[in-house]
Structure formats: C-alpha cells, structure tokens
Specification:
about 30 residues, mainly alpha, about 0% strand, rod-shaped, plasmid
Length: about 30
Amino acid sequence: MNIIIICAIIGGLMGYFYMNRKLEKKTNN
C-alpha cells in the first residue's frame, strides 16, 4: 500500500473519532 493512502485512512479515522467525541460532549452538556 502507498504511504499516502495509509496516512489518508488514518487521518480520516482520527477525524471521525474526534468529531464523535465532540458530539458526545455537546449532548452530555
């Protein structure tokens, strides 16, 4: 696999989980 593709997948997953955490904090507050 290409390093660029791997970085893109990891970056997408990190952003996805980060957004989920932000939404969870908003609903909790």
